[in-house]
Amino acid sequence: MAERIGFIGLGIMGKPMARNLVAAGYELVVFSRTRASVDDLVAEGPGYVAAGSAREVAGAVSTVITMLPDSADVRDVVFGEAGILPEMGDGDLLVDMSTIAPATAREVGTALADNGAAALDAPVSGGDKGAIAGTLSIMVGGEAADFERAMPLFQAMGKTIVHVGAAGAGQVVKACNQVVVAIAYAAVSEALVLGSKAGVDPAKVIEVLGGGLAATRVMELRGASMVAHEFDPGFRVDLHRKDLGIALATAREAGVPLPATALVGQLFDALAAAGGGDRDHSSLITLFEGLAGHEVGSAGG
Ligand code: NAD
Questions:
Q1: 284: which DSSP letter?
Q2: pLDDT tens for residues 94-123?
Q3: Catalytic annotation, pick one of 129, 174, 204, 242
Q4: What is the DSSP letter of 85?
Q5: Model confidence pLDDT, tens digit, residues 150-180
Q6: Which residues line ligand 1 (CB under 6 A)?
């Protein structure tokens, strides 16, 4: 009989991750705040069982995966009125794959350990494309034995899977990841606007930079859609603002200035203030276009 796993949070990332687990032979007990996401999966066929609350999920399985927007959502699913905590005891494991504050991950880990259960913080990188393809990078904090236990689940969803340290360490590494991605988007935006306004076809810029030291997955995966101004998410500007807030708070605690991250964080704030919080974070390029008075790919380049 297929092993039953709980999955809570069926959004842009959670849904394809759940599909990959079912494709690998697991049966999933699923719940999400938006009922339509649950119904969509159940309608896809066997492999999914709908639950009416997070607590109902935890009551039906011994391993629960969460993929929620923010720290407050994870706290709600763990500690809230219909939260999983009372159902998490000896032998139970929470694998939280959301991107949240390391301090919240440690708080959740301690609360579960007090009940005899275990927790891993296992945020991911690779975007919706990686989630669909099952090629996510997964950075995991927690006990080594729990990491080994969750490994078959991770292998169904990801390709690069690394145990990076104790509870909270996965979220610290994810903050590092988001620092690099944010600054890379700013760099790619500047380069594409410069090349284009100075008269070069941006497709050529993308093609040749991809073969040299300036190669970056940001340009490889999103360069063409940035030039085409296709900004459906993907990864929402508001989620990246949340992640840079986590990175800056973690850096302040650690005594590390992050001046470049702070600057790009302000630029994402500007996008959100202008009503663009729900667009893909690659829409950052529109700010640089505004500064230059030039739309990439228009006359001149
Ligand atoms: P999303 O907003 O599309 O999905 C979140 C889902 O969680 C929604 O279906 C929502 O209904 C559900 N939810 C929220 N609060 C809930 C609650 N209290 N109880 C039950 N369900 C609840 O977000 P997403 O893009 O899938 O991102 C999820 C997490 O993954 C975030 O932490 C994000 O930072 C991270 N992440 C996203 C990407 C990406 O490219 N989208 C990439 C890497 C990591």
A1: G
A2: 999 999 999 999 999 999 999 999 999 999
A3: 174
A4: G
A5: 999 999 999 999 999 999 999 999 999 999 9
A6: 8-14, 32-34, 37, 54, 67-69, 73, 76-77, 98-99, 124-125, 127-128, 234-235, 239, 243
Which domains are seen in the chain, by residue range?
A: 4-165 (3.40.50.720), 172-292 (1.10.1040.10)
Would residue 174 show up in a list of annotated catalytic residues for this protein? Answer: yes
Among 7, 8, 10, 12, which residue has the most ligand 1 atoms within 8 Å of its CB, making it the best to mutate? 12
In single-letter form, the type of residue at position 255 comes to G
Output the DSSP codes for 125-161: ESHHHHHHHT-EEEEEES-HHHHHHHHHHHHHHEEEE
Q: Angle formed by the axes of helices 237-254 and 259-271, to 10°?
A: 150
d(CA 14, ligand 1 centre) in Å: 7
For residue 216, give the amino acid letter: T
- Identify the pLDDT of residue 301: 54
In ligand 1, which atom is closest to the CA atom of 34?
Answer: 11
Rounded distance between C-alpha atoms, residue 81 and residue 224, angstroms: 45
Model confidence over 231-272: pLDDT tens digits?
999 999 999 999 999 999 999 999 999 999 999 999 999 999
Look at residue 52 in the predicted model and tell me its pLDDT: 97
Mean pLDDT of 34-53: 96
